[in-house]
């Protein structure tokens, strides 16, 4: 069965105690355990230098883990297997297309190298181009198509070899914001349609939420939290995850009634904005930004900045005194974090 028939043909993936230390004792990745069932899309999310790409390279076979680490496809240890024999597909930020080839030639290149008969190769390329919406551009040179179209060519080329695991290293980061937003939806749909086991690396939170079945949030060479997008957003395990994923407010516990913690975290949607005296926290409006369906307020609460969302038609102006009430069910209570929480 081929990818184009929409049947899961990817491998289950297991990573066991896989770490990476570079010369000089620089630890890029702490010993890591990870399991993906066949057909799952996992997003590695985190700031630059947190170990995302290093983990991807270990799975690909572009780098070897430290002694004792292992990578398994369908339960078979491939740690010592070179990349060309692992049957992994890769899509990079640069796409790495062959500029002297047409769209169809690029997609079929891997099949040609593997000795696929010409008729079968052309049929498979045709099916793939139809699925990614590029059938009409099969004979066009890749240097005459748009950035979004090149991204789809790179994806089709990677899928053409029927990889056990598909690895994507920030494939949308070189695109402008509007195109990136559209293509993240297209990419998520295509990956699920092909049902390939995939690992997608990004530092873009919205991209991670749109594409991943699960998200692994990374920092300092380790996975801090692994879960569904809903889990990561609604139930962060520590201040770093809480602050890195989405917009998060933070107040000292002494300002929040009933809290004995040093820090209380909450999303803008957990805040109810009322007239002065209606809620337990007094605030003043510092800024109000119109976003169409809602208005994002920036508020000063005893010298602390809080962001809250209100209906766009509410008559709130900069300088207004207001009160705030917090939804207790959506508060995240943590002890005072040690060290920084805003990056690697």
UniProtKB/TrEMBL annotation:
<comment type="similarity">
    <text>Belongs to the ABC transporter superfamily.</text>
</comment>
<feature type="domain" description="ABC transporter">
    <location>
        <begin position="13"/>
        <end position="245"/>
    </location>
</feature>
<dbReference type="InterPro" id="IPR003439">
    <property type="entry name" value="ABC_transporter-like_ATP-bd"/>
</dbReference>
<dbReference type="InterPro" id="IPR017871">
    <property type="entry name" value="ABC_transporter-like_CS"/>
</dbReference>
<dbReference type="InterPro" id="IPR003593">
    <property type="entry name" value="AAA+_ATPase"/>
</dbReference>
<dbReference type="Pfam" id="PF00005">
    <property type="entry name" value="ABC_tran"/>
</dbReference>
<keyword id="KW-0813">Transport</keyword>
<dbReference type="InterPro" id="IPR050093">
    <property type="entry name" value="ABC_SmlMolc_Importer"/>
</dbReference>
<dbReference type="GO" id="GO:0005524">
    <property type="term" value="F:ATP binding"/>
</dbReference>
<keyword id="KW-0067">ATP-binding</keyword>
<protein>
    <submittedName>
        <fullName>ABC transporter ATP-binding protein</fullName>
    </submittedName>
</protein>
<dbReference type="InterPro" id="IPR013611">
    <property type="entry name" value="Transp-assoc_OB_typ2"/>
</dbReference>
<dbReference type="InterPro" id="IPR027417">
    <property type="entry name" value="P-loop_NTPase"/>
</dbReference>
<dbReference type="Pfam" id="PF08402">
    <property type="entry name" value="TOBE_2"/>
</dbReference>
<keyword id="KW-0547">Nucleotide-binding</keyword>
<dbReference type="InterPro" id="IPR008995">
    <property type="entry name" value="Mo/tungstate-bd_C_term_dom"/>
</dbReference>
């Amino acid at each position: 069965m081929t990818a184009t028939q929409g049947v899961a043909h990817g491998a289950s993936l297991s990573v066991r105690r896989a770490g990476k230390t570079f010369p000089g004792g620089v630890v890029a990745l702490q010993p890591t355990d990870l399991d993906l069932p066949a057909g799952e899309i996992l997003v590695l999310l985190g700031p630059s230098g947190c170990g995302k790409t290093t983990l991807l390279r270990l799975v690909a076979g572009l780098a070897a883990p430290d002694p004792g680490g292992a990578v398994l496809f369908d339960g078979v240890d491939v740690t010592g297997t070179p990349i060309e024999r692992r049957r992994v597909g890769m899509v990079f930020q640069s796409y790495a297309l062959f500029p002297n080839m047409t769209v169809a030639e690029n997609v079929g290149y891997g099949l040609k190298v593997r000795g696929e008969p010409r008729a079968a190769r052309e049929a498979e390329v045709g099916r793939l181009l139809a699925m990614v919406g590029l059938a009409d551009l099969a004979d066009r040179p890749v240097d005459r198509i748009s950035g979004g179209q090149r991204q789809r060519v790179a994806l089709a080329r990677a899928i053409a070899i029927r990889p056990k695991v598909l690895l994507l290293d920030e494939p949308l980061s070189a695109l402008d914001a509007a195109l990136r937003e559209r293509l993240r939806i297209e990419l998520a749909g295509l990956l699920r349609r092909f049902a390939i086991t995939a690992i997608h690396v990004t530092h873009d939170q919205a991209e991670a939420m749109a594409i991943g079945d699960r998200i692994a949030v990374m920092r300092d060479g380790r996975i801090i939290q692994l879960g569904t997008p809903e889990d990561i957003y609604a139930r962060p395990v520590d201040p770093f995850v809480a602050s890195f994923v989405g917009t998060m407010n933070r107040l000292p516990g002494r300002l929040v009634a009933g809290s004995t913690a040093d820090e209380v975290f909450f999303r803008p949607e957990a805040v109810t904005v009322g007239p002065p005296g209606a809620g337990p926290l007094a605030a003043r409006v510092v800024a109000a930004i119109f976003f169409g369906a809602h208005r994002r307020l920036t508020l000063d609460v005893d010298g602390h900045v809080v962001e809250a969302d209100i209906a766009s038609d509410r008559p709130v102006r900069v300088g207004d005194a207001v009160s705030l009430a917090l939804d207790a069910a959506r508060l995240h209570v943590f002890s005072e974090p040690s060290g920084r929480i805003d990056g690697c």
